[in-house]
Design brief:
It is a single chain. Helices cover about 30% and strands about 25% of the residues. With about 325 residues, the protein is of the alpha/beta class. The protein folds into 2 domains: about 170 residues, Thiolase/Chalcone synthase (Peroxisomal Thiolase, Chain A, domain 1, 3-Layer(aba) Sandwich); about 140 residues, Thiolase/Chalcone synthase (Peroxisomal Thiolase, Chain A, domain 1), CATH 3.40.47. A hairpin with a 3-residue loop joins strand 12 and strand 13. Helix 3 crosses helix 4. Bound molecules: oxa(dethia)-CoA (UT7). Oxa(dethia)-CoA binds next to helix 2, helix 6 and helix 7.
C-alpha cells in the first residue's frame, strides 16, 4: 500500500513585524484588547516586493531542503491560498517557475483558512492513487492586502506568511494504528455553504470586478469554530482507531488563543500538547497550520514518530483535520 510520508517542512514570513501598539496608532484599538480577546501580539506584513508567491517560494525552498531533495524532484504542487498574486494563473505555477521546475502538475486550492487541510487531502489522494511521488503542499497568504485597515474588528486579527511540506510516496505494510505506520493516516474535510455570509470578501472578478475587502461576523464564527474543530478532530482520530491520549501534538489553525483553549478543553487535550503561534503571527489563513508545524519541527518539539493532528476552520464555512505520524 502507498502512503504519503511527510519528509520536510519549511516556512517564510515577511521581514516587517508589526506590534499591537503600532496598530493602535492607526485604528481605535489597544494592545490590551487585542491580547485579552485574541492572544495576538505581533503579525508580519508583506512589503512591496513580497507577495503570496515569493513567500510560498521561500517556504517551499526550505521544505525541499529539509527533505534532502532538489526542486527538480517535485512532480506535484498544490498551493492553498485565498490571496493569489493574480486572479489567474494559479500562484502554484508562479512558484513552479520561481523554483525552476520545468514540468509538473501545479494548481491552487481555495478553501480559505482550511485551505492547507484541503490541499493535504488532495495531494495525499493523488499520491496514494499512484499518480505522483513527491508533492509540495503549500499554504501561503498576504491577507494584509484584503483587509479594511479602517475596520478594527478585522484588521488587527490577520497577518501574512507561508508554510510548506513535502509529501513522498512510500510503500507501507503497516496498519494505520501501528507505531511504524508513518505518513498521513487519515484526513476529514467538511463544508457548509449556508454560512458564506459570516466570513467573506466583498468583491471578486465575477461580481464587482474588484478584489474586495474581508468582512467577518467574528462572534458567530467563533461559536461554530469550537464545535466544528472538536468534532472533526474526533472524527479523524476515530478513522485511525487511535485514542486521544496517543496524540503527541495538535497543530491548530491560529485564529484566536481562546479558540485553541476551548477546543483543547472540549477534547480533554492538555494545553502543553497544543502548538501556539497566534501570539507571534496572528491569523495567516491557509499558511497558519504549516507555519506552526514548521516552527515546532525546527525547534525540536515535533520529532520523528510523533502523532500529530492538524486542524483548521474558515470561510465557507470549510473545516478539516489530518492525522499524521511524523
Ligand atoms: O480564520 C477564520 C476563523 N476566524 C476566527 O476564528 C475568528 C473568530 N472570532 C474571534 O476570534 C472573535 O470573535 C473576535 C476576536 C473577532 C472578537 O472577539 P469577541 O470577544 O467576540 O468580541 P466582539 O466581537 O463581541 O466585540 C466586543 C467589543 C465590541 O464593543 P461593544 O459592542 O461591546 O461596545 C467591539 O466593538 O469589542 C469591540 N472591539 C474592539 N475593541 C478594541 C472589536 N474589535 C476591537 C478592537 N479593539 N480591535
Amino acid at each position: 500500500m502507498i502512503r504519503a510520508v511527510l519528509t520536510g517542512t519549511g516556512s517564510a514570513l515577511p521581514a516587517r513585524r508589526v506590534s499591537n501598539a503600532e496598530l493602535a496608532e492607526q485604528v481605535d484599538t489597544s494592545d490590551e484588547w487585542i491580547v485579552e480577546r485574541t492572544g495576538i501580539r505581533f503579525r508580519h506584513i508583506a512589503g512591496e516586493d513580497e507577495t503570496t508567491a515569493t513567500l510560498a517560494r521561500d517556504a517551499a525552498t526550505a521544505a525541499i531542503a529539509a527533505a534532502g531533495l532538489t526542486a527538480g524532484d517535485i512532480d506535484l504542487i498544490v498551493l492553498a491560498t485565498a490571496t493569489p498574486d493574480n486572479t489567474f494563473p494559479a500562484t502554484a505555477t508562479k512558484v513552479q517557475a520561481m523554483l525552476g521546475i520545468d514540468d509538473c502538475v501545479a494548481f491552487d486550492v481555495a478553501a480559505v483558512c482550511s485551505g492547507f487541510l484541503y490541499a493535504v487531502q488532495v495531494a495525499d489522494s493523488m499520491i496514494r492513487a499512484g499518480a505522483h511521488r513527491r508533492a509540495l503542499v503549500i499554504g501561503a497568504e498576504t491577507f494584509s492586502r484584503i483587509l479594511d485597515w479602517e475596520d478594527r474588528t478585522t484588521c488587527v486579527l490577520f497577518g501574512d506568511g507561508a508554510g510548506a511540506i513535502v509529501l513522498e510516496a512510500r510503500d507501507s505494510v503497516d496498519d494505520v494504528a501501528d507505531a511504524g505506520a508513518r505518513g498521513i493516516l487519515a484526513t476529514r474535510l467538511h463544508a457548509d455553504g449556508r454560512h458564506n455570509g459570516l466570513l467573506y470578501v466583498d468583491g471578486g472578478p465575477s461580481t464587482t470586478g474588484t478584489v474586495g475587502k474581508l468582512r467577518m461576523k467574528g462572534r458567530e464564527v467563533f461559536r461554530h469554530a469550537v464545535v466544528n474543530l472538536a468534532a472533526v478532530m474526533e472524527e479523524a482520530l476515530q478513522a485511525t482507531g487511535l485514542p486521544t491520549d496517543a496524540v503527541d501534538w495538535v497543530v491548530p489553525h491560529q485564529a484566536n488563543a481562546r479558540i485553541l483553549d476551548a477546543t483543547a478543553r472540549k477534547l480533554s487535550l492538555p494545553s502543553e500538547k497544543v502548538v501556539v503561534t497566534v501570539d507571534q503571527h496572528a491569523n495567516t489563513s491557509a499558511a497558519s497550520v504549516p507555519l506552526a508545524l514548521d516552527q515546532a519541527v525546527r525547534d525540536g518539539r515535533i520529532l520523528p514518530g510523533h502523532l500529530v493532528v492538524l486542524e483548521a476552520m474558515g470561510g465557507g464555512f470549510t473545516w478539516g483535520a489530518a492525522i499524521i505520524r511524523m
